[in-house]
């Protein structure tokens, strides 16, 4: 699929060939528009937003897949972060990039561990976090985590008292280079070993 | 066991490093065996209890959480030692043991995962987003940049303001004590007759219930003050009747 | 020149072929490093800086030319600006990307508080908001909030005067990643989660 472009396809003559050629052109143009939008956007762009911007693209998932393939062997990749897309450099090339590191969040040991508990057990209540860590959360810890934008409020748990739950965000996935929560280290193993109870697959996995 | 392993100083440092009793227990277990499946719970209980005992010997203030764990473990140990057939309705000792082992394993897993998670390549450190973004300045869309935490804080602030705001008196409807003293002295010095307390209230304080109540309370307080100083006498014939006040005669004073 | 990659070149057999294959590999790697550097850079990168970062690239101009060719038919081009290089989306596609250019605006303290009151107490009248906040709303505040599309007019209150009420919208839920407003922690939960500690306005450790 890579790099079908106008000049390469000039030799078609029969009308049928011409039609499929035109279809390919349209597809390719669509992919380029997606490429431009995602490239120019500061934040990962949701598939829904892309659909809205390009209502003429028939199968947006196919187009995004093609675009992903185009960049597969480049130093810059099109990556899917849950239901959003963004361009990111490969970690492999980090040594060559001397960038002033914008935002280095320094989390305490307890905050890191709490973040991991939320990531693996989400949606998880405060009590459950405290049960897993065997210690009560100190004041301001959840503040800090919410402020990183890696953690958000999830749906209330359907148990007596309807406690608030916590979940991780797309920012979290993006920061750690994860496509979905299932990409977390050892996620599958932990789930199979029964350490992650009540995990529901995300609803809007497309 | 533990006492031999750790000197007194290190003991204190170690305790501070632990993030709660379960973590302490986990580290004791890991010292015992690498594989958490093979740890001996009774041995672990003994180690934990001696740790806590040692801490109290050193007069360290242990957080309540550590003591609660100690009491649970003591209970668990007693259940393990007791014959199995008593107290059937409660969790059996082996179930409690299993549960504790599960929690230790779960904590150790999440600790490993935390380490591995933070070892992963990170955005802005190991991989990057595009550094430059075009400015098509013609059609700029304003996007609000508010995070949930800001809204939560705003809400918490309003509520804490309402709960913790200092009591404010609305001065207009409070009759001050020196005002009351003046009006009492003004009335009672004129004659030696008894004056009803409610008659002392100035006319402008009689136009609302709130004002009357405030003026009455202050006048009463002021009258008590004058009685205490020996300038006036206060009289009430029977409970709930009106109070009368008059200035004290010179003869009375003698 | 486009997209020579490892898997496509596996069939070389003679040592000479192998050598030229390896040389191509090195070249291709060099191009990818340039790609990553230019992509991640905030400013166009000068050829001198690129040379310094990649002293192992034999002919940097050739590599940059190759990279330019790779992107020639994409929606994003590698462009030379004087003696610097940068990636730019093609103006041709700007119709699609203007939508995603965003200027970040912060809400005022009063607006945030009012929004919070609406979120928690909806449907809520103006008088009730003023009562809860203990201060009257300044002119234009409700207009600002309505403009954000996070707040909308709700049903009229069935009390004398039939005052208008305000409610939050689906946009509000989307923006803050919530499923329903009921998921928002209540005051007691906020207090338990430590949100009532003296709020520092400064950022967390960066």
Task: Give an overview of the whole structure.
The complex is a heterotrimer, with two copies of chain A (206 residues) and one copy of chain B (254 residues). Chain A is of the alpha+beta class and 206 residues long. Chain A folds into two domains: 6-96, Winged helix-like DNA-binding domain superfamily/Winged helix DNA-binding domain (Arc Repressor Mutant, subunit A), CATH 1.10.10; 109-204, Winged helix-like DNA-binding domain superfamily/Winged helix DNA-binding domain (Arc Repressor Mutant, subunit A, Orthogonal Bundle). Chain A has eight helices and six strands, in the order H-E-H-H-E-E-H-E-H-H-E-E-H-H. A three-stranded antiparallel sheet of chain A has the order 1-3-2. A three-stranded antiparallel sheet of chain A has the order 4-6-5. In chain A, strand 2 (76-81) and strand 3 (84-89) form a beta hairpin. In chain A, helix 1 (15-40) packs across helix 3 (60-71). Chain B has a three-stranded antiparallel sheet. The model of chain B is unreliable at 1-14 (pLDDT under 50). Chain B is mainly alpha-helical and 254 residues long. In chain B, strand 3 and strand 4 form a beta hairpin. In chain B, helix 4 (41-57) crosses helix 5 and helix 8 (177-188) packs across helix 10. Chains A and C meet through helix 1, helix 6 and strand 5 of A and helix 1 and helix 4 of C.
Query: Could you tell me the radius of gyration of chain B in angstroms?
Result: 38 Å
Number of DSSP E strands of chain A? 6
Gross morphology of chain B? elongated
Which architecture of the largest domain in chain A would the CATH scheme give at its second level?
Orthogonal Bundle
Helix- and strand-based class of chain B? mainly alpha
How many DSSP E strands of chain B?
4
Radius of gyration of chain A: 22 Å
Rounded average pLDDT of chain A: 83
Kindly name the structural category of chain A. Answer: alpha+beta
Distance between the termini of chain A: 22 Å
Mean pLDDT of chain B: 76
Termini gap of chain B: 87 Å
Chain oligomer state: heterotrimer
Question: H/E element string of chain B?
Answer: HHHHHHEHHEHHEEH
Which parts of chain A are unreliable, with pLDDT below 50 for 5 consecutive residues or more? 1-10, 198-206
Strand share of the residues of chain A?
5-15%
Q: How are the strands of the largest sheet of chain B arranged?
A: 2-4-3
Largest interface: A-C, 54 and 49 residues
Order of the strands making up the biggest sheet of chain A: 1-3-2
């Amino acid at each position: 699929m890579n790099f079908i472009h106008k000049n390469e396809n000039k030799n078609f003559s029969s009308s049928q060939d011409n039609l499929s050629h035109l279809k390919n052109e349209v597809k390719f143009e669509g992919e380029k528009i997606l490429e431009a939008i995602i490239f120019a956007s500061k934040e990962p762009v949701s598939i829904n937003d892309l659909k809205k911007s390009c209502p003429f693209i028939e199968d947006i998932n196919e187009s995004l897949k093609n675009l992903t393939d185009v960049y597969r062997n480049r130093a810059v990749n099109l990556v899917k972060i849950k239901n959003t897309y963004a361009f990111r450099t490969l970690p492999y090339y980090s040594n060559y990039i001397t960038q002033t590191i914008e935002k280095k969040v320094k989390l305490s040991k307890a905050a890191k561990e709490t973040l991991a508990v939320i990531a693996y057990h989400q949606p998880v209540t405060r009590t459950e976090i405290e049960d897993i860590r065997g210690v009560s959360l100190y004041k301001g810890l959840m503040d800090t985590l919410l402020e990183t934008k890696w953690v958000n409020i999830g749906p209330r748990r359907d148990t007596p008292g309807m406690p608030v739950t916590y979940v991780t965000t797309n920012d979290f996935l993006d920061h750690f280079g994860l496509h979905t929560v299932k990409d977390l280290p050892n996620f599958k193993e932990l789930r199979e070993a029964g350490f992650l109870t009540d995990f529901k697959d995300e609803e809007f996995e497309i | 066991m533990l006492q031999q392993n750790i000197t007194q100083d290190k003991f204190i440092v170690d305790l501070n490093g632990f993030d709660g009793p379960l973590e302490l227990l986990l580290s004791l277990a890991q010292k015992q065996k690498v594989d958490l499946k093979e740890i001996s719970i009774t041995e672990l209980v003994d180690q934990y209890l001696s740790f806590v005992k040692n801490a109290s010997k050193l007069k360290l203030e242990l957080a309540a959480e550590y003591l609660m764990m100690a009491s649970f473990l003591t209970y668990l140990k007693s259940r393990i030692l007791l014959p199995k057939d008593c107290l059937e309705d409660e969790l059996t000792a082996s179930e409690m043991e299993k549960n504790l082992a599960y929690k230790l394993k779960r904590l150790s897993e999440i600790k490993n995962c935390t380490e591995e998670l933070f070892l992963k390549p990170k955005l802005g450190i190991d991989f990057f987003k595009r550094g430059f973004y075009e400015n098509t300045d013609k059609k700029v869309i304003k996007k609000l940049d508010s995070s949930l935490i800001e809204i939560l804080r705003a809400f918490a602030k309003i509520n804490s303001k309402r709960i913790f705001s200092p009591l404010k008196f609305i001065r207009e409807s409070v009759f001050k004590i020196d005002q009351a003293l003046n009006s009492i002295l003004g009335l009672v010095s004129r004659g030696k007759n008894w004056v009803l307390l409610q008659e002392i209230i100035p006319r402008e304080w009689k136009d609302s219930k709130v004002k009357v109540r405030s003026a009455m309370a202050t006048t009463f307080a002021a009258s008590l003050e004058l009685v205490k100083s020996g300038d006036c006498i206060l009289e009430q014939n029977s409970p709930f009747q009106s109070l009368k006040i008059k200035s004290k005669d010179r003869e009375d004073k003698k």
